[in-house]
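job 3f2a | input accepted
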Amino acid sequence: MLSYILRRVLYALPILIGVNLITFALFFVVNTPDDMARMQLGIKYVTPEAIEKWKIERGYDKSLLFDPDKRGWKKLTDTIFFEKSVAMFAFEFGSADDGRDIAQEIKARMLPSLAIALPVFVLGLIVYVAMALVMVFFRSTYIDFFGVTICVALMSISGLFYIIAGQFLVSKLWHWVPISGYGSGIDNVRFLLLPIIIGVAGNIGSNTRWYRTIFLEEMNKDYVRTAKAKGLSERLVLFKHVLRNAMIPILTGAVVVVPSLFLGSLLIESFFGIPGLGSYTIDAINAQDFAIVRAMVFLGSLLYILGLILTDISYTLVDPRVRLR
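job 3f2a | predicted structure (325 res):
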């Protein structure tokens, strides 16, 4: 078991290093510090002196990979690559353009993102799996037909519609909850209730159809026919055998949610004024704050790789055969 986990971790390290190198190339080779300075200061009327000042203030005036004028290790460490890219592995993200420490901002904004993403993930998984099981249990009936039709209709609606319609009906028209904002303590439930409901409702169509496909595929396998031949009821076969054997593809689909548990939902946090990492990223993109964007790209890739490792570990719990590979 330990060697299995160790192999997965070793496989993940080259991926994280590769993402880091690609991010560095995009920000400092394809899009040079001079280009970033011009975008911040204005392309038409910016002077070379202003560009140089902007680069010095943010530490972009150094060599990219190697500085031959330095001595010893400083030839490598006193470079943009080491200070802006390698330092991220130690979670040193530096400062944003407004001077605030990025690592402190991430710590402060992680809790609001979790307050939305975690309930959406847990409630959503329960709702989607339950609806898919009901549709499979009543497969080839009107319940299954109308269920698939509703799922396809929901998939065709943009996520923005759920947000705008929810704010208009629930907040502006009926005044049940605040239209946006973020509170503290138990009062915070009023602000989070609508975003959580919209987060779950917005993915009902696609996720329910996905889980329904998984369960239908399992229902056509030999072990299901064998269980039915032994006299087991349809309900027992579906909820005990099919659901358990479908856990591996369910866990695989759930891994993509892991980064969003920490990084938050970009649209929901922005529209509801929630100070999470999703709105933090959107604000950084709008303000062209490249330091924050780099940090969020690195953090997102790290969390995604961590999710892959956790998924591999969970495989060993639902399928003991995986431990032998």
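job 3f2a | The CA atoms of residues 223 and 293 lie 49 Å apart.
job 3f2a | closed
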